[in-house]
Amino acid sequence: MSDMEKLIRDAETDIDRHGRKKAARDKKSVQLPRVSIPIVIWLIAIITAAFQFDTIVAPFSETTDTQIEENLSDILSSAADTLKKYELANGSLPPILPNPAVRGLVEYQRLNDFSFHLEATIGDVTMVMESSRPHPFRKKVP
Questions:
Q1: Is 46 part of any domain?
Q2: Is the pLDDT of residue 30 over 60?
Q3: How many angstroms separate the CA atoms of 62 and 40, rounded?
Q4: Quick one: which of 9, 83, 126, 131 could link to 139 by a disulfide (CB 3.0–4.6 Å)?
Q5: Residue 64 resides in a domain
Q6: Is 35 a domain residue?
Q7: Phi, psi angle pair for 13, to nearest 5°
Q8: Distance of alpha carbon 142 from its chain centroid, rounded?
Q9: Residue 107: which domain range?
């Protein structure tokens, strides 16, 4: 082997060694910090809970909505009974609700002499009573 071939082989070896060291340095500088598994699990749990908050809380709030529906239904039924009694006694519906205590809670619309529309809202619950229906119903919110 000639001196020239030995110098070329030594140069190739040095270049190869230098390239491996540079690749190792680059690889170390690109690595992200290690995150522990418990932290990742907590982050996933917190994010999931944040997006599922309404679903998680719904079982507790449904009883409140049901209670509000029942209370508003009772108020609307009572107001409808008062209107029907007034109609029987006077031949037509009144221009305003006869019971002043209910006027602040119930929106009354006299559609004509013999039909009406009552609506009451508390929070997100709106109940409706119409003269053409026997019972109040919950208004669908779009």
A1: no
A2: no
A3: 33
A4: 126
A5: yes
A6: no
A7: -65, -45
A8: 13
A9: 52-136
Q: What are the tens digits of pLDDT across the range 84-97?
A: 999 999 999 999 99
How far apart are alpha carbons 119 and 76 in whole angstroms?
8
User: How far apart are alpha carbons 94 and 113 in whole angstroms?
Assistant: 8
Number of domains in the chain: 1
Question: pTM here?
Answer: 0.54
By three-state DSSP, how is residue 133 classified? coil
Tokens 């994010």 locate to: 47
What is residue 44's three-state secondary structure? Answer: helix
Q: Pinpoint the alpha helices (H) of the chain.
A: 3-30, 37-51, 53-90, 100-103
CA-based Rg of the chain, rounded to a whole angstrom? Answer: 39
Nearest to 129 by CA among 139, 119, 121: 119
Classify residue 11: in a domain, yes or no. no
The pairing of strands 125-130 and 106-110 is unpaired
Cβ atoms of 128 and 77 within 8 Å: the answer is: no
- The SS3 of residue 111 is coil
List C-alpha distances in Å: 27 to 20, 36, 60.
Answer: 10, 21, 52
